[in-house]
Amino acid sequence: MSSRIEPIDPGESDDDEVNEILRESEEGWYKDSAYFGAVAHQPRLLKRLVRMFRLFPRSDSIDSETLELMRLRVAAVHGCAYCGTVRTWEVKDEVEPKEDAVFSNQIDASQLTRREELAVHVADYMSGDPQEISDEFFVELKEEYSDETIIELLLFAGIEVGLDRFCIALQLDTTEQSPYPTELEYPLDRDT
Fold first, then answer.
1. Which of 23, 91, 104, 135 has its CA 20 to 30 A from that of 178?
2. What b/e readout covers 65-93, taking b as 16+ CB neighbours within 10 angstroms?
3. What's the CA gap between 101 and 115, in Å, rounded?
4. pLDDT tens-digit profile of 20-49?
5. Quick one: which of 12, 50, 53, 9 has its CA closest to 32?
6. Could you tell me if 95 and 72 are in contact, meaning their C-beta atoms sit under 8 angstroms apart?
C-alpha cells in the first residue's frame, strides 16, 4: 500500500534546507525519509518540527534509548505500521533486545530498567487515556525523575501520540531506499 499523500523525496523540493533535512533523514534519523517527506509538503512546518525533534534526543534528563522505547510503545498501542517499523537508527542496536517488552499487550517490566519501565508507562497512558494516570503513579515517577524531567516525558509522549496518528491517517509507507520492508499494512500487527 502506498501512502495516501506521497512524500517528497530528497532532492525534489525547491527548498535546499528541506532537501538537506530529507537527505539527513535518509542517511541518519530513521534511515527513511517518508515521514519528513510527508511533512515537507509544508516546508515551514518541517523546519520547525525538525528543530523541536533535535531537542529531545539530545536531552540531558532522559537517554535516547528510553525515548525510543516510548516511541515504540506509542506505535504498539495505536497500531502504527510506520512508527512500529522504522527505528531511530542511532539507538537501534541498544533498543532492539528490549522491543518485545514494549510491543506486548502488557509492558514486560522484566526487560526494562525501572526508569525505562516508568517512561514506557507514561507513553502507554498518554496513548490511551491520560485521565487514568493516578496520583500513586506520579509518586512512583517522582522517585526516579525530577519534576522537570516528568514534564519532558509527558511532552515527548504527547508529541509522539500526535505524530503517530499523523502517520496512521496518511497510512505512511517506508521508502524503497530504506532498509525496511515496504507495502506496510495498517494497523500494525507484530505477529505477522
1. 104
2. bbbbbbbbbbbbbbbbbbbbbbbbbebbe
3. 14
4. 999 999 998 899 999 999 999 999 999 999
5. 9
6. yes
CB neighbours (10 Å) of residue 111?
16
**What gap in Å lies between CA 152 and CA 185, rounded to an integer?**
32
| pLDDT tens, residue by residue, 94-132 | 999 999 999 988 999 999 999 999 999 999 999 999 999
Torsion sign over Cα 19, 30, 123, 74: positive
Cell digits of residue 54: 533535535
The grid coordinates of residue 63 equal 537517554
Q: What are the grid coordinates assigned to 145, written together?
A: 525523575
Q: What is the DSSP letter of 56?
A: S
Q: How far is CA 8 from CA 13, 88, 185, in A?
A: 7, 20, 21
